[in-house]
Hints:
five-stranded mixed sheet; 22 strands; 60% helix; flat
Amino acid sequence: MILRSFQTNSFAGIQNRCYRFQDGLNVLYGENESGKSTVVEAIFSVLFRPAKLHKTKDKDFIANYFPQGALTAIDAALEVEFPDGAYTIRKAWGNGFGQSIQKPDGTMVQTETGVQKILRERFYFGAATYKYLIFSSQKDMFDALYHIIREDSIQGEVKSFLTQTVMEMDGISIEKLGSLIDTAISELSKNWDISSKRPNNNRGISNPYVVGVGTILRSYYDLEQLKLDLKMAKERELNFELAGTELNKLSDHLSKLSTDYQKYAGMEEDIRKRSIAEVNVAKNQEKAKRAEVVMVEWPVKKSNLNHLEEKIKSYVAEGLILEKEQENHKRFEKKKAIEELLKRIHSLDEKIQPLAKQLSDMRIIPQEEMGRLNQLEREQLFLEAKVSVTKLEAALAMKEERRAIIHQGLEAPHEMRSGEVFETGGYLKLEIDDLLTFEVKASGLDIGLIREKEQLNRRAQEEIKEKYQIESAAQGSERIRLRTQIVAEIKGLEGQRDTLLGNRKKEELMSEFEEYAEVLPGRDIRQIQDRIQKLSEDKNRAQIELEVNHRELKALEGEYISQEELMVTHRKLIEERVNLEHQLSQLKRLPDEYASADQFFQRITQLKTERDRLLTEEFNAKQRYLEAERQLPEESYEELLRRKEDLEQAYRRNLETLDALERIRDVFNQTQAQMMDNPTEGLSQRMAKYLEVLTRESIRMGDFRKGLIPRLSNRGAKSLNYFQLSQGSRDSVALALRLALIDELFPEGGGLLVLDDTLSDMDVLRKSGAIQLIRAFSNRHQVLFTTCDPQVAQQLGGHRIEMEGGMGYDRQ
């Protein structure tokens, strides 16, 4: 840790002081009684002295540091920087005692348990160790060293730290540590399931253990019981609050309702009379208004009656004209239909005429002639096939050029040349001049007979083709098909024409068309029909209006007899209304918030009913409120909640203590053998080096014989007793031990050492060596050095704080 600042309003004889410290060496310089040692005591008290003082235990502190020894009030504040940030610790003792810690994130802890928890987490040793090892003054140096080497608590803590075992209890020796740890764990964990963190056999607050209750289980039971008390307190306080809210709400409602009722009750009779009078006024106004309207409408209705009769006559006349116009439109549409029909018939006739001419020009081929021609063509093919059913390939080779005539099948003879290749069927005849006649034919083939039949067949075909002017039977069949198609097309067109004509003839249709020759087109039929429809509607409305006017005039005559009598009735109504309005002026008016007297009377009735109901509910609510008040717990929910926070902290602290003790026990068991050895070997080496520098090797040391008592000797190896040394030598040994301990406890640096005028009894040489050691030491640790010697202050250097006239200020 590093001290950053110290501040006090009042502590012993110092008032309103604020000192700031730096890393390394800080020198507080001032005359005797200027407050140097008081500042050291105040810093120690902020860190380790409880805010709540015990009159017997703390009587020396009260006597030395309270004004005139009276228990009034003193305070101090300290800013300390730890690895996780800067903490500001404040304490006040005496009247209005208290403490607080402001954490690095700005949050404030003000409970005693919260403050102590943070301090315990950051200070490894007990208050005694810090007092004699770090904060001891020069005048107490002998006693400090005596305590360091004699007290088990300090030695135990130092040894424990040096062997990586952190001890949090003062006055415990290593020899007693094992049994104390086991005893502490047992006291903490009686009937507590450590692994599952709950009571053994899951016996909670509903079925608690009565005997054998450990510290953790007791804090658990206390916390669980408090949770039940909290739940009950919250429910009962909520019931009390709800009962009070309900009662207040009902009382407010009843008060307002009573005010409204008193306000309206005094005008109830006037409002009742007014409602009757207003009804009569309304009826009077309605009758008078009716009479005024009739006085205006009566002559108007008579005039309208004549006007409507004339209008109906004009509608009838226009209707006759429209009927004629509609009939003309029908005749014109008939004319258009006949004209369109004649056009379509004429179009069909124009299509039929060329087809009929084509049909008349086409020569008819009888079916029997077509059958004969087809038969002849089949026979022709048969004869040709009979001759040419087999194909032979031959070549003509002649040594001398001769004229060769060849007859092949049924073909005509033709000339061949030597070397030509030819094919032939079932008959071949070759004639070479007068030298050779060669004939080959299929077995059984009578080529002559076949040629005769073939020629007769061919002549018969030619006769038919020439007669009917066709080239083949296929062409004849095509002509028959085309003729059939034309005949069918003509019949179809004639059928369409007959359908259009119906039972009439074309001449009759043309004669009918002539009858409509003079008919001319008029307006569009839709315009005519729309006008007829509109005219019919207007006529119907006029007739209805005429009938209504007749009935209304008849009714007026039945109601008022005549227009003169109507005027008399109107004057009487005016006089009656004046009298009624005078009566209304004498009565209280209906409040503006009501639209009618019925609403007002309904409200009066409602207020009466509601008031009786609220009186009953208010009485019941008062009873519930008193009952809820009787059931309120002795401690409020907020008080219980604050106590719950303390119990939760105690419960967590007990669990953390148990966990820490178990870890300590594990480490203790693992390192017990090592702790039996000498854990101070490194410490003795460091101290020996420091002592050699301080005493110029006039005093030498060996190992520690027991605890922290070193073996000392002179240059002649003669053993020395520390308590028989001179004051300067004892100061040197004590300083060497304290420097070595701080180095050993804080091997990475960052420790703190307060040296209160430690060089006053040393000779010049030892003082020079001590100053060199302290300056080098302050490179690794923070040092607060107090002195009244200006030469020592000058030689030390560092950050200098001069204390003069009851005030202190920094000087580099």
